[in-house]
Amino acid sequence: MDLGIKGKWALVGGASKGLGYGCAQSLAREGVNVVIVARGAEALEAAAKELRKFGTTIIAAAVDITTPEGREAIWSIQGGPGKNYDIVVTNAGGPPPGDFRNWNRDDWIKAVDANMLTPIELLKATADGMAERGFGRIVNITSSAVKAPIDILGLSNGARSGLTGFIAGVARTTKLASNNVTINNLLPGAYDTDRLKGTMKGAADKTGQPIEAIMDARKKTIPALRFGHPDEFGETCAFLCSAQASYITGQNILTDGGAYSGSF
After folding, report:
1. Of 26, 83, 92, 160, which alpha carbon lies 20 to 30 A from 66's?
2. What is the pLDDT of residues 133-145, one digit of tens each?
């Protein structure tokens, strides 16, 4: 299927690896020019090298997009579209797990800055321009924990749920929705990424069990009996960014292999 987005410009956060890279790869495969962002320059350049094999323009920006300075650097990239992106995929590393009793105000502010306020700032900078041009796709990578909170991920639960509530309102504003600008959230479950492995290692260290046993036990809680792959997550993201997805907005798309057992 031709997704109708060839030649458009996308901004993808956290794109050096994992789910962000999966999204950037799927968009590049569709002929989209992509600005990929992450803090680690070496891993980001390696990712850019791979993505350029698809023949589109790939610009790597090693900045911290959760800061005002990082976002300003994105808008001023030479050869980029300024703030005139057609597609924005927001994605920042999730806050660390832990016990809520040990988190202080600074921990909460950092989590909210990265996982709620940064996506909102990116939306503010780009959405009205998308509406003026008659096309825009904003996809926020959040977490399945928005629907089924995980006790040790309270910082993530709180910050991402705040973003979810905000998006539910702004996605339905007539100025955006009637001008072919859609805003949706992608809620990943357990995917085979470094973040998952880090969480599993923490559980292994805490319980004294081998990490392989911890991971096998987690897989058994998923009806698909496996972890997701970033490539398939990227394909879901690319479809949400497509011309065909113009009637999907304000939605929380759960991709978790059936792990969430609720009806809604």
Report:
1. 26
2. 999 999 999 999 8
